[in-house]
Design a protein that fits this description.
Blueprint (H helix, E strand, L loop, with lengths): L4 H27 L5 H17 L5 H20 L3 H19 L7 H26 L6 H17 L6
Length: about 160
């Protein structure tokens, strides 16, 4: 873990912002038939900061889930293998959930984690492709994705008392 007062204080804000800007860049470039290396970099930095700040005993599942998420997300966006990439995305979100939580359904923290992962899956697999077909990728799907990732980050990252 990087010991920095700025990162300790503002990482719950930086990680979701970086992720959402990365998704926005990727979606915008898909609408204009391009490839967004800036979006990929923003998403990668967001995941690295998230990985650094999450306190869990199962970091290997979290790291493999985050890497597999990036792979499956870009497989879904830039290829026509929709069903296989959706299954890969579901597996990656399961690995992230298993790496973060203790798999108990009765704690509020775990329920927030599972709900946010489900909303991320619904937004990326169903809502964004549907709205991209109508050239409108910044509607309810981005709002749901922003809300879900922000809840996930604020649930998993502890904010120090300064």
């Amino acid at each position: 873990m990087i010991n920095s007062l700025v990162l300790q204080t503002y990482s719950p804000i930086i990680a979701p912002l970086s992720f959402i800007y990365g998704v926005n860049f990727v979606e915008k470039e898909i609408l204009f038939n391009g490839y967004s290396s800036l979006g990929f970099l923003a998403m990668l930095l967001s995941f690295l900061l998230f990985y650094d700040r999450v306190e869990t005993k199962k970091k290997e599942y979290l790291s493999s889930g985050l890497g597999f998420f990036l792979f499956s997300y870009f497989l879904m966006k830039y290829t026509n293998i929709f069903i296989l990439s959706s299954i890969f995305l579901l597996v990656s979100l399961f690995l992230i959930g298993y790496g973060i939580s203790d798999m108990g359904l009765y704690s509020y923290k775990n329920q927030y984690i599972y709900l946010s992962l489900l909303l991320i899956f619904i937004s990326l697999v169903f809502l964004l492709p549907y709205q991209r077909d109508y050239m409108n990728a910044y509607n309810m799907s981005m709002l749901i994705l922003t809300f879900a990732f922000t809840v996930l980050v604020f649930t998993c990252i502890d904010i120090p008392n300064v």
